Each structure stands twice: as structure tokens, then as C-alpha cells.
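Re: weekly structure request thread

Next one in the queue (212 aa):
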Amino acid sequence: MSIRESRPTGDGAHVKQTPTRLDLYGLVYITYRGVENRSFTNSNMEKEEQKACVIEVQNYRGNNNEYIVKELAILDLSTDIVNYFLLKPPFPLEWLDQKSLKTYKWLFNYFHHIPWHEGFTPYRELKNILKHYCSQYDTIYTTGLEKANWLKLLTTSTVIDYTLDKKMATKESTTGICIGVKNSKHKYSNCALSKAYRVASQLKKETNTGFT
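Done, posted below.
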């Protein structure tokens, strides 16, 4: 597994662990290379295959029940490389109303364990990131109808609401590969990164279609 990471320190500098990876917006993110080679290829390479990816997120809810994305994983099905973003909060936690704050506490304590304040990517760039990466793929797989409909608002690519077997496990999902969130409970719970790998693994088993 190859991981490239640059995390901000308290004084605004960056601690670099292997070369820093920046996208076209100059945003810090982490790139994961799969432990296993899961390249989705087809022996018939004469015809051009469609490009596909898996997009998974973990989120909170705003006062209008809107998505507040905290964790974003985009897995390229031809290379098994994931671009991973941990979003900074769009506003202080104190701005949530009583209902939304109750939802936040439940999600943090019992679901994905991502602290509100953590993040290394500015939230204002979320739509730009999604539009940029979504434009590179013909087909996008994600889990859940609400998430699929949300992605459809941001791209003209085909978005598929994919059903993931709850028992599906991978080396990445069982070894706690995620290093983006400091809370140790997160990597073994509902993590966007490990879920993206699980979807990719299941797709590989179910289809003979090549992704390039």
C-alpha cells in the first residue's frame, strides 16, 4: 500500500510523509493504493471500455436536513487507487439546532465516529472536487438512493445505486486502513474508504466487464 499524506500542523505548516499530493485546486488529500491488485480488466482490449469509479461519503446533517459531507472517497475501478478527502466543517458546531445536534451526537457516538472539527480540505471546494472527478468517469457506483440522487445533481455521468452485501469484507476494511480520522473507532466502523473498497471487490466478483 502506498500512502501520500500532508497534514496541517497548528502553525499552518505541513508535515509531509512521502511526497505531498495536491489536486488542481491546490487541496491536500490522501492517495491510497490497494493492498491487492484489483485491476478490472478484460482480455478483449480491442474495444474502448467505459471508465468507472466508486464514490462513498460519510456525512452529518444540517438544520435543513442537507448533507454535510465529512469524508469522501473516490476509487478508480481501473487502478484501484482512491483519492480521499476529509472535509473541514462548513460552520461551527454551535450553529446546529437542537434536532441536528442530536443527530450529530448519534452519528458520532454510534455510526462513523468522525469529529465535527476534523478535516484538511476546505468545505467550499466540495462541489468543485466532485465535478472535477465525476467528469472523468462514465459510470459512478455508490450505495443508497439518497446518495445517488445527490450525486446526480452534480454530474451528467451515469450514477448507479449499488446494493452492497453487508457481509462483504476486504483486507482494507478489516485491517483499518483509514488514517484520515484520528478517532481509532472510525476505521473499524462506517468508513467511506473501506466501504469504497468493499463495493469495488463485490463488483469484481459480479461482473466480467472491463474498466479502463
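Strands lie at 3-8, 14-17, 30-33, 52-61, 67-76, 81-86, 139-142, 158-161. Residues 1-28, 35-47 have pLDDT under 50 and may be disordered.
Next request, please.
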